[in-house]
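User: Here's a structure from my thesis project, written as structure tokens. My advisor, Dr. K., wants to see whether a designed sequence matches the one we expressed. Can you design one independently, without my sequence as a hint?
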């Protein structure tokens, strides 16, 4: 069990106990994935924005004595709501939402007797059950850290964000955090990317979580009891009668409102990269096969993969991006991140916009160069004159070493992606769960009470 995290020069120390012994380890990077009561978050000094709870919810599994006569689904009562997912043959899920105020002591263990009394009181009649288990309390309390990165310590999952658990969106967020951090941290750990890419991770995932928390708070408002709640639900019902609005509102909760465009050429920044047929200079393939073959590198797909384009891309980013000549994309150039998200899409033009996006996505610095020089370099034959204007910072360049014969070689750095297995790309599942819908994400808001 982790008991303390402390930042030191070039890393962090982690103090933990195991089998009665206290140990201290030093690591280059520490990732706190230790849940809502994260010790890493607390001891490392992360700050967070919170909202106080206003509701008290109870949850449990139990066998209903008379499932045929139990209140099924969502049932509004004078006090709040009961939600019973009735199972006639096995355990049913039982939830009560008391909107009259928060738990007096949310850490007090829930008993079967308290759950039974609450269900009966809300339903206005006995709803007997037996063999209650998996009992817990929760509320509409929310917390979002102000930054997912603090020096050498990063957070993912519930350690970074908690909210009213409606729709199971917290799990989706945590998976997205892990996907968004993994490839970036691997590049940084191998010296192939500037640590600044971890700040991009923080901004990106913070915006995702803020959107989810705002959406969940909106759903909580629609659960209100009384005239105001009735009015809100009536207005929502009218909206849901329209098929397009119904689909948009529903997908905002299921996180499916960001479908991959049918054509890769139509993809915009933040879209999922749709699998599509790619015509390369060596034959016909598709995006998923190229993505798997690229391993932990991104893909740059463009019609023009000439030496001049390679000279712009490969010196700084060759170990992080695989350049693919895609003859069937027309003038559109598409940059796909290792997690399957489109980082940039557009016509190559003078190359300056692509260079800026490469630097932001994979680390490195893009020194200012004249637009005319870039344009000349990408339209003339041979190596571009502006290639020296783009270079990664020294700390992002792979370390060099000398072998037994005195020849220069790259220092051996462990590759977390080597060996295949489950860390390879997700060809069978596509890119689901990796990005909260861009179209419906609201602007970040202050969540302080």
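Assistant: Designed independently from the structure alone:
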């Amino acid at each position: 069990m982790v008991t303390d995290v402390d930042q030191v020069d070039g890393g962090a120390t982690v103090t933990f106990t195991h089998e009665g012994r206290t140990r201290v380890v030093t690591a280059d990077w520490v990732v706190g994935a230790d849940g809502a009561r994260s010790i890493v978050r607390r001891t490392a000094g992360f700050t967070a924005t919170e909202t106080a709870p206003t509701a008290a919810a109870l949850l449990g599994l139990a066998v209903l004595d008379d499932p045929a006569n139990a209140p099924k689904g969502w049932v509004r009562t004078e006090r709040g709501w009961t939600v019973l997912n009735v199972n006639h043959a096995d355990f049913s899920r039982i939830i009560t939402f008391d909107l009259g105020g928060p738990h007096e002591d949310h850490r007090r263990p829930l008993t079967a007797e308290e759950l039974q009394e609450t269900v009966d009181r809300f339903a206005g009649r006995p709803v007997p059950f037996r063999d209650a288990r998996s009992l817990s309390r929760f509320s509409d309390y929310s917390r979002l850290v102000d930054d997912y990165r603090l020096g050498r310590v990063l957070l993912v999952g519930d350690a970074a964000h908690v909210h009213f658990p409606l729709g199971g969106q917290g799990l989706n967020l945590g998976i997205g955090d892990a996907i968004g951090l993994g490839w970036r941290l691997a590049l940084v750990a191998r010296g192939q990317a500037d640590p600044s890419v971890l700040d991009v991770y923080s901004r990106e995932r913070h915006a995702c979580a803020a959107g989810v928390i705002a959406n969940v708070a909106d759903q909580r408002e629609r659960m209100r009891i009384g005239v105001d709640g009735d009015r809100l639900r009536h207005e929502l019902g009218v909206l849901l009668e329209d098929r397009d609005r119904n689909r948009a509102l529903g997908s905002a909760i299921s996180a499916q409102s960001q479908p991959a465009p049918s054509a890769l050429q139509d993809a915009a920044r933040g879209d999922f990269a749709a699998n599509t047929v790619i015509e390369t200079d060596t034959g016909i393939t598709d995006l998923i096969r190229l993505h798997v073959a690229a391993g932990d590198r991104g893909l740059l797909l463009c019609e023009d993969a000439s030496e001049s384009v390679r000279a712009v891309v490969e010196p700084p980013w060759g170990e992080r991006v695989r350049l693919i000549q895609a003859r069937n994309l027309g003038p559109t150039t598409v940059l796909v991140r290792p997690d399957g998200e489109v980082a940039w899409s557009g016509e190559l033009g003078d190359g300056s916009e692509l260079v800026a996006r490469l630097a932001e996505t994979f680390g490195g610095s893009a020194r200012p160069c004249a637009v005319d020089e870039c344009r000349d370099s990408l339209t003339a034959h041979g190596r571009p004159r502006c290639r020296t204007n783009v270079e990664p910072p020294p700390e992002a360049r792979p370390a060099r070493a000398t072998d037994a014969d005195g020849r220069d070689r790259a220092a051996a750095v462990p590759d977390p992606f080597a060996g295949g297995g489950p860390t390879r790309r997700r060809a069978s599942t596509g890119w689901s769960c990796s990005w909260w819908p861009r179209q419906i994400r609201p602007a970040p808001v202050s969540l302080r009470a």
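When you compare it with your expressed construct, this may help: The longest strand covers residues 129-138.
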